[in-house]
Every structure is written in structure tokens, then in C-alpha cells.
Design a protein that fits this description.
Largest sheet: none
Radius of gyration: 31 Å
Strand content: under 5%
Distance between the termini: 129 Å
Oligomer: single chain
Helix content: over 70%
Structural class: mainly alpha
Low-confidence stretches: 42-46
Number of strands: 0
Number of domains: 2
Length: 152
Amino acid sequence: MENTAQQDPAAAYGGYDALAHIEKQAGALDSEIGGMAGGGGVPDVVHMDDTHANEAKMILTIARESFVGIYPSLAAIYTDDRIERIAVAAGPLLAKYNLSSGGILEKWGPEIGLAVVALPIAQETIKGVRQDRAAAKEQAEKEAAANEQARH
């Protein structure tokens, strides 16, 4: 007589079919892999729950904001989505080599972020005000010269 477990594995384990369970898990993994963008290994939906990934995201965002005034094309290249994808990929590498900002970004990140965004705007403001003053001075000089000529 043949063993019941060989005929129906689920019956041997009280109705639990381990093979069906494994196949279901494999199907879920296949679906997840299918959702990965561009074969880069980063899923379309990323979860930023890793401290190193969060730190990488902050550094990349600060870098983008620091240079976008000089190189405007960086805003289109380093989108929030791309920065997040890079950060998720970089997080394990930072963890592997135990690289971090030593808590500086955690403690001062918002202040650094504000400075990075506000300082270029402040520089543009100063430059704009200087140009406005120079234009007003030039206009006043032209008007003064025109008034001087009108008197003669």
C-alpha cells in the first residue's frame, strides 16, 4: 500500500500544502521583480525606512539644491524620484562601510537644508537689488543730463 503523504502531500500535513505555499510566495516575488524599474533593482515603490538611505536622500537633495542655481539642468535630472531611488540603492552601501554624517544631518539637517535653498535666493536678491539701483542711478543721470541740456 502506498503512503498517503506521497499521494496527497496536503493530507499529510492537515490540509497544508507546502508546495502551493512556496509557489504562491514565488509568484509574489516574481510580481515584485516585474515592478522594478529599468532593471536597476529598485522597486517602483520604495520605502525610506533605512537611516542610511534617509541620510543619502538628504545629502543628495542638499547637493541638488546647492548647485541648481549654477546648473539649472540638475533640477530636471535629479528629480525627487531619482534621488529617492539613488538613496535606496546607496543606503546598504553606506551601512556596509559604516559611513554616516555622524548625526550632523540628523541634528542640523533642516537648518542646512534651509541655508542651501535660501542662500542662492539671497544672492539673487542682492544681485537684483544692485541691478535695480544701478538702473535707477543710470536713469537719474540720463534725466539730469537731459535737464541740463534743456537749460542751455
